[in-house]
Protein 1
Amino acid sequence: MPEEHLAICRFCHSFCGIRVNVEDGRATKVIGDKHNPMYFGYTCVKGRQLPQQHYNPERVLHPMKRGKDGHSRIDAETALDEMADQLKQIIADHGPRAVALYSATYSFPYPAGVTMANAFMNAIGSRMSFSSGSIDQPGKPVAMALHGRWDAGPQPFSESDTWMLVGANPVVSKWGGIPQYNPAKRLHDALKRGMKMVVIDPRVTECAEKAHVHVQCKPGEDPTILAGIIKIIIDEELYDADFVENETTGFEDLKRIVEPYTVNYVAKRADVDPDILLEAARTFAGGERGMVTAGTGPNMAPRGTLMEYLVLVINTLCGRWMREGEQMPNPFVLLPEKRGKAQPQPKPPAWGYGEKLRVRNLSNNAGGLTAAALADEILLEGEGQVKALFSVGGNPMAAWPDQLKTYEAMKALDLNVSLDIKMSATAKLCDYVIGTKLGLEAPAITQPNEGVWGYGGSTGFPEPYAMYQGTVVEPPEGSQVLEEWEVFYGLAQRMGLQLTFAGQELDMENKPTTDELYEMLCAGSRIPLSEVKKYPHGHIFSDESIRVLPRDEDCEEKLDIGNEFMIGDLEEVMAEPVTDDAAYDATISFSHRLVSRRLNDVYNSSGRDIPALMKNHRYNPAFMNPGDMEAAGFKHGDVVRIQSDHSSILGVVEEAPDVRTGVISMAHAFGDAPEFDDQVMYIGSNTGRLTNVEKDYDPRIGMPRMSAIPVNLARVDDPLP
Ligand SMILES: Nc1nc2c(c(=O)[nH]1)N[C@H]1C(S)=C(S)[C@@H](COP(=O)(O)OP(=O)(O)OC[C@H]3O[C@@H](n4cnc5c(=O)[nH]c(N)nc54)[C@H](O)[C@@H]3O)O[C@H]1N2
Ligand SMILES: Nc1nc2c(c(=O)[nH]1)N[C@H]1C(S)=C(S)[C@@H](COP(=O)(O)OP(=O)(O)OC[C@H]3O[C@@H](n4cnc5c(=O)[nH]c(N)nc54)[C@H](O)[C@@H]3O)O[C@H]1N2
Ligand code: SF4
Ligand SMILES: [Mo]
């Protein structure tokens, strides 16, 4: 009989509660935990492959060092000794700025790792800490800084009668908009209750299929569409006049600037039916409760910050923030109690502070230092040049925009280190690869999903849910894998550094345990971690008495719906020429716009080495409308060259009636370095290569155009091996 353990799936950010069968010390099967009060037994195909992931023959089970003949095993202590020596030398020769950190996707599920990595960066005195958030939706926090954050937070999905998703597909992505904890059930329940859904997306996504109104727009035109919706809401007086009067500034400027965004103008520019646009605005604003939330698509298209700002403006016009006396949906569990006030918080600076980058006049900003400029920082010689990079649960070669530049950067580093579970496209170029423990091999807490509260219209957990998981299985016998935090702690010990972890000085002699670090991360939490541990299925720690407090008497903050920078951007958008094709550069014409998307079976570049997840596709298809294929003379399975104004990649065409005409829909983080391009049928291709980080980027935060990329297509007739 297998033992059964309750655990948290950390394959993706959703953190489903699962049941794991363990036989002879090995995980053998994963199913959902029906008694979990947040997920109700849900798992997806990825989570059910945790055993295959843990015992994958390609997993990195030992620290690896690169030599003349490729990578070979090295003892962990020796690897840390060598890395510490090299770091000391690099810092002595070039200063601490030469050391950069990139914490990415798999930093999220391991909160002790990312906290320790940043403690290490503080201790050496380098501010060059980057995260994948800056190539995700950096416009969200930047727009929030300009508009202001409502302290009591957004209205909860579970009580909403309308909702609008702008380029997000949470049913698949488990992110953004519909609470990402069994989102399909939550959407189903909400629709049954009578909630009306509006989706703005060039593709008939899993969410759009269920929507009352689907604006199947030309990609990249979201700022125009949202400005048009704002104009309809103002003209038809569908806004919350009291809320606007009492809580905002800038209404007159907003009203003036959206004036030219008439229904007909917007409809023509975004190539949508004017009636659909009117219906979208009326359906959303006609409701009482619910948020507009945006996802990665329009955040990666041009003017993501403006787009996010307009999302906030619609929410504010409609008064969709929590009010005095209402029950706080999630007052937190493993974080200090959150009892919001019915008022805006003071506005933090949006950009232009902290560390200055040496390129494109960028500096730290509310979205974090620009990872899209890190390759430049590595390649650009001179004072401050980055010589050492730690990638923690990230894969720059798969994920950073402009892959060819990234490739050069990865090879140029003096010390390139990946903390990863496999020899990723990046790890293959690293001097050291430290194999890390996987999700079932170390304790877990759900705290990171509380931390996303208020990220855009997201509430994180919609209720005060928390769960703890102890170690479920030991790593495979004979392996030497570390937790991410152990690497940075070990380096600090060797370099004689004192680390401050979550505000507390660490004992640098006696190594802490992961559980002790979690206690430190949860210090002052509303519910002690020890209490959460008593509930193996996870638990909702409700407290109806925690209600939104009134506005402070001396609070003079207002939400700004007429921010000068955003008004300026809307003026620029209006001045742009309206074209019929995908062109944005008058000198080159393009037939299509390539848009980003998620695939259910993989998680960015993760999952591509797990056979059960490769059943549908080994590569990332170039999904295309059948009408477009016919017009171009392409057949299903044809290999085409996809050309942007910067670079080109190969793609395998696949018929997809859900994709709008004029659009190619393709997942990112596939393919490998250029030497492997001819293997497109087996490994796919890297859409990041189409992006130019030096052109068409947000000048304030450096976010380049990573969706709605103008491209041309041509069939490749030479057979590939
Ligand atoms: N063109 C284009 N580019 C994009 C995007 C896009 O839509 N289009 N999306 C962007 C977004 S939103 C993001 S967040 C970034 C993602 O950027 P990254 O996070 O840099 O990319 P991933 O592919 O998620 O890299 C995760 C790495 O972690 C490893 N890994 C898996 N499990 C574990 C684990 O348990 N522990 C550790 N230590 N490592 C593990 C994987 O093997 C993989 O190498 O990409 C961005 N890039
Ligand atoms: N299965 C799976 N889940 C994932 C991931 C994964 O790789 N696989 N990645 C994870 C990561 S890192 C993140 S950040 C989240 C992202 O989560 P989401 O933001 O929900 O990501 P997508 O599912 O790609 O949804 C983006 C949508 O934007 C649309 N789109 C593209 N360009 C435009 C545009 O210009 N305008 C508009 N209106 N729409 C546009 C696309 O058609 C797509 O439907 O997902 C996470 N979840
Ligand atoms: S949605 Fe899938 S991959 Fe994500 S946590 Fe749940 S089971 Fe794991
Ligand atoms: Mo992301």
Protein 2
Amino acid sequence: MEVISFSMLIILLFALFLISLPLLLFLIQNKSHSSKNTTMFPHGNMGWPIIGETLEFLKLGRKGIPEKFINDRMQKFSSKVFKTSLFGETMVVLCGPEGNKFLFSNENTLVKGWVPGSIRKIIPSAGNVSTNEGAIKMRKKLQTSFKLETLQKFIGKMDLAAKEHLTTHWDNKKEVLVFPLAKNYGFSLVCQLFMSLDDHVEAAKFYDHFAVLLAGLISIPIDLPGTSLHKAIGASNILRKYIAEIVRQRKLDIAERVESVPQDILSHMLLTSDENGQFLNDMEIADRIVGLLVAGHDTVSAAITFIVKYLAELPHIYEEVQNEQREILRSKPKGELLNWEDISRMKYSWNVAREAMRLASPAQGFFREAITNFTYAGFSIQKGWKIYWSTYSTHKDPNYFPNPETFDPSRFEGNGPAPYTYIPFGGGPHMCPGNVYARLVILVFMHNVVTRFKWEKIFADERIIIDPLPKPAKGLPIRLQPQCT
Ligand SMILES: *[C@@H]1O[C@H](CO)[C@@H](O)[C@H](O)[C@H]1NC(C)=O
Ligand SMILES: *[C@@H]1O[C@H](CO)[C@@H](O)[C@H](O)[C@H]1NC(C)=O
Ligand SMILES: CC(=O)N[C@H]1CO[C@H](CO)[C@@H](O)[C@@H]1O
């Protein structure tokens, strides 16, 4: 019975094929004929319907080789640009420093910022950065709040937080698991600095919702009960209500008695606002703060984790960082907290941090959307298409970074890497406003950790996973040896 129906199916398919053959031939001919003189679209493979090549993209990331996705296709299709489908969208990938330069230089004329649907559903404001007037004002406000002049006032607070973290979680321990501790540290730091959420019990409750939110951020955008996206949207609603209440209370405090208002980034934003903070309502401000919490904690935690990893693997580099930091410590009155002058002396340490962010870039890449039809490298790109560029494809290109897998902080000496090749924070007008924040937090942590500890890895060959941020597969357990200074 089965055999019969199977052969019948074959015959049926064959007949169908024969009938449609002329039509097919006509279509193919017509296509090649007309494509002779119409614009040429970038070549590429669109993968499966809807999912496209997303699974392959995510799989290579989990294997720790996200650059392979780009490199394979650059070889197959074009070294400059290719087409694919990711996160349910037609996606054009621009490659190499020329691609980066093109995108950064044509911001708001040919392209604008874009984020995948899953992120827009969880953090609505992430979808409309440059549309309405309130959003533009808010963005400007945030950018001033993230300038060095503003943030350097918080260096002492960052130093205290690093000291407290190491005392609580590292002191008197033989072993620690670095990655979860770095996440915990990065998160409690943003809570303290942004909105003076110092209470550990409150912060822990807050963190649970936050973890659910993060898990859904880069997911297939299907919002049904049980999916990680659905849970993340729920968590985001709780967090935004919670933060909106903090914002409401803070506005009241500011209106009533300015002197006793907590000195944090939220107060700074509200106090420097030209229109008494009325440009956005509390919920809209809360929405942006959730976005900042996401951007500000995970990336910094990943960077710290990888710095600890490389310092464990490379004792001569650890020693040089330690010497630089001990020198700074010795030059200060005992007990005085770090300040901007100290940070600006941490030149070697910063090169080490930058090299760690080259090899394990916290951001894999960024998205844009074409706002008009344009031609790039001879290929036509259509209005509405999404564009992706990847940090890893230049960070690991031997043309720009010889022996790309070798950790070498001297790459950042002198003029440093060629333009548009080292881009962990993006570039152009949309450059991540958190780069100054990241620099301060990372250097303050490095100062404290190398002046108090030396360490070695427990698993010499621990794998790296990128999902969506880089992390060591086993969380980077290390063995500690306290240092005296
Ligand atoms: C996003 O934009 C839409 C319309 O442009 C607006 O209705 C909505 O309130 C905006 N969302 C946020 C969170 O700013
Ligand atoms: C873009 O090009 C397509 C054809 O390739 C055309 O249909 C469309 O009208 C163009 N759009 C704009 C905004 O020029
Ligand atoms: C053969 C032919 O028609 N060539 C034309 C193809 O289109 C370009 C502009 O898009 C023309 O310049 C060519 O003359």
